[in-house]
Specification:
Blueprint: E1 8-11, E2 14-17, H1 41-50, H2 57-68
Antiparallel strand pairs: 1-2
């Protein structure tokens, strides 16, 4: 069994992944989805706070630089 956790957004009655899906999952393949949605603004803030948990200042800076450099996010050559 392939197991992959993905972030998705619910739009127009369907879930749309925010990032590409594991290639081992075939187009049209049936999957099981477990939904975990934050219930309150406090939970959302707690999740956001945990993003950098355990990272050094250098690692945080590197992650933020990658996030800010969006020129390769939507190109085929990566």
């Amino acid at each position: 069994m392939i197991e992959q956790t993905i972030d998705a957004i619910f739009e127009n009655g369907v879930f749309r992944p925010l990032l590409p899906i594991n290639e081992a999952i075939a187009e049209g393949q049936q999957v099981q989805i477990v939904i975990k949605a934050p219930e309150s603004p406090a939970e959302i803030l707690e999740l956001a706070r945990d993003v950098y948990a355990g990272l050094s200042e250098e690692e945080i800076t590197a992650v933020e630089q990658i996030a800010l450099n969006r020129q390769h996010f939507f190109t085929e050559d990566g």
